Write the structure tokens for this entry.
Amino acid sequence: MSATVQTEILQIIAAHTDVGPEDIGLDATLDDLGIASMEAIEILFDLEEHFDITLPERDPNFDTGTVRGLIDVVTAELAGAAAKSAGN
């Protein structure tokens, strides 16, 4: 995973919380960070817009998933988009 991608994701999440990106633990859930459902959906939309990707349909709360899991999903989507682009 690119450190830049991770940093950008943490900054997007931090923009929706009172927690600085440097203080967001990778094993924290969005629920741990005090992010409600609607805010979680906004984060997903922000990630899709920022990285120009479409995230798979998931539980918008990511209550049982972690920040690390969200980073992994975004990274996988970016890799898939890059592979698709290279194949054209």
Notes: The chain has one domain: 2-86. Helices lie at 3-14, 37-51, 67-87. The two ends are 24 Å apart (CA to CA). The chain has a mean pLDDT of 87.
